[in-house]
Amino acid sequence: MDNVYFDYAATTPVDERVLEAMMPFFTERWGNPSSLYALGRDGYRGLEDARERVATAIGAANPSEVIFTGCGTESDNAALIGILSRVAPDGGAHVIVSAYEHHAILEPAHWLEKHGYEVTYLKPRVDGHIHAEDLQAAMRENTKFVSVMHGNNEIGTINDIKAFAEIAHAGGALMHTDAAQTLGKLPFDVNELGVDAASFSGHKIYAPKGIGAFYLKRGTKFEPQLKGGGQEGKKRSGTQNTAGAVGFATALEIMLAEQATEAPRLAALRDKLLNGVTSALENTEVTTPATNRMPNIAPLLIKGVEGEAMLLQLDNKGIAVSTGSACSSGSLEPSHVLLSCGVPQEVAHGSLRLSLGRFTTAEHVDYFLEVFPPIVERLRAMSPVYARMFGSAS
Amino acid sequence: MLYSEKVMDHFNNPRNVGVIEDADGVGEVGNPVCGDMMKITIKVDDSDHINDIKFQTLGCGAAIATSSIVTEMARGMTLDEAVAISKQQVADELGGLPPAKMHCSVLATDGLKVAVDDYLKKHDREPIAGEIKSSDPNFDPHGDEDHGHDHDEA
Fold it and tell me: What is the pLDDT of residue A366?
């Protein structure tokens, strides 16, 4: 079987329906949305229609609260640096981000630390969730900003953003969530969750790479990170990616229209994968005993095997997966997400993340379950320590 | 990051995998906490030539490939020649390694050195490779590398 893709959390293909909706904006409706003549006005209508559709989809009170960006990383940077540089221009404020955020949050947080802000990296518990009591305990008098991801990209745990927003607001802080992994896959409503800002990415929902979105509640202080011609309500200058925005809106609408059938379908395939692997192979487990898990992410710990070796062997079989192993990332350290959840380093090296999506079928799952156990058994048999550590060679 | 064809060949079809049960020398290096662990067993003939060699490795593609190639390189060599194999020679023999993976070739040459010294010590002879840091179970193979950024987590 060729091209069995289990890495939808990394990126997705562009859905044909999305591409079709975008096409006119490349060759026919290509005017600059800021131009006053008919061609420009037509581009503007396309862009603003997309904005309205996204606003409706996420429950934003006003379309102007939706800002199109270049990617999820840009939205995350805008949230931390854009908001804090206005809320506390001279630093001094306290910021809380979870310790297992995407690097698009952690790196701006490190930057803030170097520029006069105090940052707390709030750890998840071993269940893989951030807990409201822990957030409450981390709040300080000068806490101005809290950011916790809605769903974790590596272990698929879902966080109770609504509860966190209440805690943040009660303490006088703004609440942001990175929803790149959950948008369209789980119910997501900015009003219901009570967030002040949220980040989204197009290429996780079958829109192209190069388009993201940022929700910023009206009235929230914000310093634009891109300064220029004043597009996007002066919050993000740069000629808009009209086709990308239309693609994003269309992709999100398809996600929502299919969510009710797709979520249970993927959850069933996810469980089949998790149960299949853990019952076929000893010394394997589902990463973190989460109580609330995304339907599309199957996180596994395969003890006594190194992740990159599994990834490459699966690639030989035409299967694409991800690992939190140090060796695959070039960073030399295993995934900060797994370590933050208390997974020991030697176990984190054997992590495997399968993420499912629109084109994942039961046949793909069966094929994976057929080829994977022999790969692990072979690698374990080649290990000088597996038998010593686990007392058997399979 | 891309692996050469030869790295992939040795990763997919590793040579000399296993343990020589009545080995003359055993070298075990690395640390499971770091994700890399290697064991080399050797047989040595009367003229100090390595006439059989096997390895076991827990690690990434590069760790397995470097282990495999070093067993091919060392087979038939004298003990002096074997301990002189450098990490660069291992990498070159594989058609190059990505920079982040160079430490894997150190593991392979270290494993061989420890096995050779183990043989010499067992025969009351002076070790020739000397102290090998990675044979210490607490050795951090990345200790001398720049991690690029820090992650202070509360």
Answer: 98
> What is the rounded distance in angstroms from the CA atom of residue A80 to the CA atom of residue A174?
10
Gap between the Cα atoms of A301 and A385, Å rounded: 17
List the single residue in A309, A316, A385 with the smallest CB-CB distance to B64. Answer: A309
The answer to whether the CB atoms of A120 and B154 lie below 8 A apart is yes
Chain A CB within 8 Å of residue B28 CB: yes
Residue A375 and residue A394: Cα distance in Å, rounded?
11
Which residues of chain A are within 8 Å of residue B101 when distances are taken between CB atoms? Answer: 327
Number of DSSP helices (H) and strands (E) in chain B, helices first: 5, 3
Kindly report the backbone phi and psi dihedral angles of residue A82, in degrees, each rounded to the nearest multiple of 5, phi listed first: -65, -45
Contacts of B21 (CB under 8 A, 6+ apart): none
**Nearest Cα residue in chain B from A312:** B61
**Residue A392: band (very low, low, confident or very high) from pLDDT cuts 50, 70, 90:** low
- Check A306 against B151: CB less than 8 A apart: no
Residue B1 has pLDDT above 60, yes or no: yes
For residue B29, the chain A residue with the least C-alpha distance is A384
ipTM: 0.87
**Which residues of B are designated catalytic?**
34, 104
| B8, B56, B153 ranked by CB distance to A121: nearest | B153
pTM (2 d.p.) = 0.92
- Considering only alpha carbons, which residue of chain B is nearest residue A110? B151
Contacts of A63 (CB under 8 A, 6+ apart): A48, A51, A52, A54, A55
Beta-bridge partners for A174:
A145
Residue A394, pLDDT score: 44
Q: Which residues pair with A120 in a beta bridge?
A: A96
For A62-90, the pLDDT digits (tens) are: 999 999 999 999 999 999 999 999 999 99
Place of tokens 């920079």: B99
H helix intervals, chain A: 16-22, 24-27, 38-58, 72-77, 83-87, 103-114, 132-138, 161-170, 190-193, 242-280, 307-316, 326-329, 336-340, 345-348, 362-381, 386-390
pLDDT score for A327: 64
Tell me what percent of the residues of chain B surpass a pLDDT of 90. 71
State pLDDT tens for residues A208-266.
999 999 999 999 999 999 999 999 999 999 999 999 999 999 999 999 999 999 999 99
Question: Which residues of chain B from 34 to 93 reach within 8 Å of chain A, CB to CB?
Answer: 34-39, 56-64
Distance (Å, whole) CA A204 – CA A282: 33
| Of B124, B111, B125, B28, the residue nearest B74 (C-alpha) | B111
Q: How far apart are CA A105 and CA A138, in angstroms?
A: 18
Instruction: List, as one string, the DSSP characters of B59-97.
Output: S-HHHHHHHHHHHHHHTT-BHHHHHT--HHHHHHHTT--
Question: Which of B57, B101, B154 is opposite residue A382, by nearest beta carbon?
Answer: B57
